[in-house]
User: Fold these one by one.
Assistant:
Number 1:
Amino acid sequence: MSKSMKCLVTGGAGFIASNLVDRLLADGHAVTAYDNFSTGFREFLRPASANPRFTLVEGDTQDMEKMASAMAGCDTVFHLAANADVRFGPEKPRRDLEQNTIATFNVLEAMRKAGVKRIAFSSTSAIYGVAEVIPTPENAPFPVQTSLYGASKLAGEGLIQAYSEAYGIQSYIFRFVSILGDRYHHGHVYDFYKKLKANPLKLDVLGDGTQRKSYLYVQDCVDAIFTVMQKAQNKVNIFNLGTKEFCDVNQSLGWICGHLNVKPEFNYAGGKSGWIGDNPFIFPDCSKVYALGWRPKLTIKEGIIKTLEYIQANEWVLTANPDRARAPQKA
Amino acid sequence: MSKSMKCLVTGGAGFIASNLVDRLLADGHAVTAYDNFSTGFREFLRPASANPRFTLVEGDTQDMEKMASAMAGCDTVFHLAANADVRFGPEKPRRDLEQNTIATFNVLEAMRKAGVKRIAFSSTSAIYGVAEVIPTPENAPFPVQTSLYGASKLAGEGLIQAYSEAYGIQSYIFRFVSILGDRYHHGHVYDFYKKLKANPLKLDVLGDGTQRKSYLYVQDCVDAIFTVMQKAQNKVNIFNLGTKEFCDVNQSLGWICGHLNVKPEFNYAGGKSGWIGDNPFIFPDCSKVYALGWRPKLTIKEGIIKTLEYIQANEWVLTANPDRARAPQKA
């Protein structure tokens, strides 16, 4: 994406999205962040706010008209706004529907109204459910959904593909593994850090510790997005984004405890799954993005350490989340 | 499904659903039809209405509370309410989202509220898009959506699968080919009949006539649904419903013109697709349902002739549709 463009990033104040905003600005693009600050942080947009090519529009993805106005003149929409927490689906199923599926529909309608012809979408490897083939390629056997989060993202993918066909929109669908790095503020590294800070002698662990997971460092993730959008030019471009590495929960616990210099007793909840709809092993085959020449710069272990260092230097994210009333309002 | 049960059929006044209602009643079950009569016909429920085991609840699938009340005490929900017309997606994209995706979410929430633990869902072979493998099995390579209709049904499938995982609901997902038979009131046989009645000398045909399609007679479809629900007992059961036969548009035109004894000049619009998102060849592999012992009783040709005979005996469907104001109100 060497040519200067104007883009809008939904959920721009979020973890991955705000890193993307900074990188787009650094590359010389004009960027509008669209966020309702329900889970995003003003703090994450502080560096961007100093840039004259940056605009912030406060709005909800349920507000199609406002999004369409914010998109005026844009070449590309990066749709990253989402309910990103896979674990609470069964408690609040409507949230996934509204914030992932209907929100994506609204983004597409706003694009149609504003005449924007390119979209990049943050999907998830959770849509592979309990995969028949591991590592799981993009054209794996038609999966069965196991989580409301995955189902809501799959619905978003389908909508984007149908809009590409019907309205000539070029689309990039990225199926992320779990992302690590600066501004990370929920997920297992966060949870473990918080628990170990409260009690470094004992740690409750979901499942039996053998759940294998794959991770990607956020700057490597943004590199991959840019590589794909430069080199892949089909109408619909679907890419797994992850590395050729994976780890299990016990390994990552070892790295975390090593870095924090603690030796807790582990108390395993047991079972193969951390929560309902969790999969014991999610490991997408990322050959397709590797074939474009992209390579990750950090290993999973390095990504986890970097993430811990970020949290250590920004402990406000521990108390600011998930109760937004306690978030800092520095911006 | 030999044991007597209580069931609710959404969209019960529709083409396929009303045939299902009649068959369920004939098998001794208690049946509630739930319909808003936006595209269903009261006429189709006239035979059922004479049965003391039949109840009609007029309501919309957007009304979750009303559906939940109507489901009280039910064993099984047959969710057939839908925007079933694949062709007008690009003109009215919100209709597919609301009537297929959000409606399915509401049905699932109503089931959760009412404690119903089994659902059968009318999905579509349109979700295979431009299939990589033909005939296309249920676990074909992960497809890319080409129509808003397909995308909205895929979203419904994903929701149902996730609800099965999260809330212990047993689900039956049926990917239908085009269905023919009594009470058929939209689709290509309907369109051709209507056009030929207006002008038997000349017929406009979408595409180039070589689009291959597969069809299933509605009573064979209901037989297949019953067979699967008796014999398949996984948590999530996904079945293509069609036959091992297909035809192309020119063949079916030959059968239609032969039956109607007309010899029009064909005026082809040209191109491989009939409309945006139409696929030149949809042919699901139905080995899985055949393996359960089910067999269709009618060929495609016989199904088309039966459908023509129904329309000939019920020409009111030609004027009653799609303008509902002109529908008869005999019930």
Number 2:
Amino acid sequence: MSYSDDTVRLLEAAGATEGSMVVLETGGRSYRGRLMPHHEFSGPDIVILKMKSGYNVGIKVDSGSKLKVEESPAEPAHREADVEPKKGLPTISLIGTGGTIASYVDYRTGAVHPALSTSDMVNAVPEIRDIANIRAKVLFSIFSENMGPEHWKGMAECIRDEIASGADAVIIPHGTDTMGYTAAALSFMLQGISKPVVLVGAQRSSDRPSSDASTNLMACARFCTEAKKAGVFVIMHDTSGDDSFAVHLGTRVRKMHTSRRDAFRSINATPVAHIDAKGKIDMLSDARDVSDEPVIARTDMEDGVLLLQYFPGMDPETFRPLIMGSKGVVFAGSGLGHVNSSFVPMLREACAKGVVVAMTSQCLNGRVNMNVYDTGRDLLAAGVVPLLDMLPETAYIKLRWVLANTSSPEEGRTMMATPLAGEMGDRREF
Amino acid sequence: MSYSDDTVRLLEAAGATEGSMVVLETGGRSYRGRLMPHHEFSGPDIVILKMKSGYNVGIKVDSGSKLKVEESPAEPAHREADVEPKKGLPTISLIGTGGTIASYVDYRTGAVHPALSTSDMVNAVPEIRDIANIRAKVLFSIFSENMGPEHWKGMAECIRDEIASGADAVIIPHGTDTMGYTAAALSFMLQGISKPVVLVGAQRSSDRPSSDASTNLMACARFCTEAKKAGVFVIMHDTSGDDSFAVHLGTRVRKMHTSRRDAFRSINATPVAHIDAKGKIDMLSDARDVSDEPVIARTDMEDGVLLLQYFPGMDPETFRPLIMGSKGVVFAGSGLGHVNSSFVPMLREACAKGVVVAMTSQCLNGRVNMNVYDTGRDLLAAGVVPLLDMLPETAYIKLRWVLANTSSPEEGRTMMATPLAGEMGDRREF
């Protein structure tokens, strides 16, 4: 939907273009703000202004409305092309994959550009160049709900190559929807990685007031250059404010809110570190020190692995073809790790056939313990592998990776029950 | 596994039986506690004592161990049979269904009885008889992972009958694993119910120190007799201590920890009320007043409804037979309500065929908003119903109920998007 003819006339008569600072008088009120691009969902007579507060307000105009331009849009910022590397600074490779964080706002005009250039991202946070030389590239430009195994493989190989060619750290801006799954996938593919690999997203698109894109990115750069810790991490806001960031281990993090800036939470683990507004890093739990070991990327992922949440009334016969036809199934069972006992015979059959069936809890917090009640014991006897405090999503990723890297279901079961990347069991806290 | 012959001899020589207070000297240490029943998972030479702290300790005995009985087990408590109702007190119907809360501990001997008599439960909390006349019955005695639609139907009919025959409130002790699902089912089956219906469980089995079974039950009785609020609620501990309880709305509650006593949390809603250690009730959000309206139980539930969590790498073709063969599907999508865009054509086909497809978020917290990104808009255009802030589990239950109570998929979609039992949208807070 575009502007109505009347609205176009109102804007043109005043000489208002996107980014103009305008005063709009309508319905007995006066509004002052920057003219924002027309939104495809706003009505034909709605003009959107970015107010001084930073909020965008949609205002209905009519034949009585008056518009005056106070200030023309600022010229677009100079975009640096290639920046000369500074001697003595560490090198961070920034690998763009898409998502909200990759949308670009011109802060002078308020206009949003869906530009996905990672250079643009760096230019929005110029102070990042004071602490690191940035090598920026775009690997993908996709919404994170469309991420899958082929993208994880691409990222892992790109990270390996960037580190092999001298990067001291890698930052991957990523859509938040599936960032937890990608973090887990990279954690298994890049086990024992010797440098920091940080996934980062934004919960607020860059046209919203105080978008978290820039602050999150700067926190990543600080952690990458100062903490000297190796591993796959997710860094996002720790509170709904601007002044606090959490560093999560890639196998322990889950998106726990659709929209809050502090949506990402470490589950069953203390975050690896906390970063305050001044960039001060507090280590909270165990992480390996950086080293110069070469990076090995084992990127194979088995197909035919399922993640299923148990629910009352779930019919074993309905799910039989899927489960019997799969290589492996992770259940998010109820409570301590249960499913309806009517599933036991079929799961026994599946395990005997070589399907690896593993159990996590849909409670998310706490540990699976299948020794407490009869159903749990029956499932254990059937061959179901209990996964302690592993997240269902991490377990699904791990099972795909394990089955691609083992030669028998028995070996697969053993590896599922063995911590490989901090994904299960107690972690050392400081 | 049972005791070894040597251990049996040690116990018999001392005259120790279950519940005896004993002093055991072994390995240079001395232990004093009540002899607990032998656990099937403890070794043949392990003796379990309940210490003064309340904790059970397993102690390995050998040929050098010495055992002395200090005190014989106490006589079992007198179990009251029928208690004469007291005039002027409200009547609470207690309907047992099984679960941890229904396991009985004899506090004098420390022995655990898997007795499921609701009278036993009441007798463990004698002060409950000071505030209400209790009518206790056992409806089922099953683990909650085995609960399903037939049990929800049985409970709803029993509640209706109990209230019709004079009960002022109903308390349902229930296993915690699927208590949230049952609470949602009863909320839709008993819409507009005029009395309090409270589900309650225990996270610690009664043989553990300070089991929450009794304290939870007493909090329920207080809420039922004092708050004068109608609806389906879950009452459990609000903290890991003993002194605080939360009253949750049946459609907004989820088990969020495998073992903590405060595992049940209201999601996207303030709890209905808080109850402190002294039984003081603070109303925190909206609930209807009790009345004498008759209870209508609409207990039909459609079969062939699925709850599916989206995960990266989920293959639409693998799930096609299930989805196309179903009456309805609730997705726990990623983020604001997304699945991989490769699902769009199949979901469009399913919707056109009359399958009701609804979207919630696996983030659990926050609202689905499918207008923000392309994939969401494509899903809306395909006919997928966005469910705002409804829990995936509640949405699954609601969809089963809605499809059994509507005559067309279109009507079903409309009802899914309409709040029926406080399950979606903002609730009034006090």
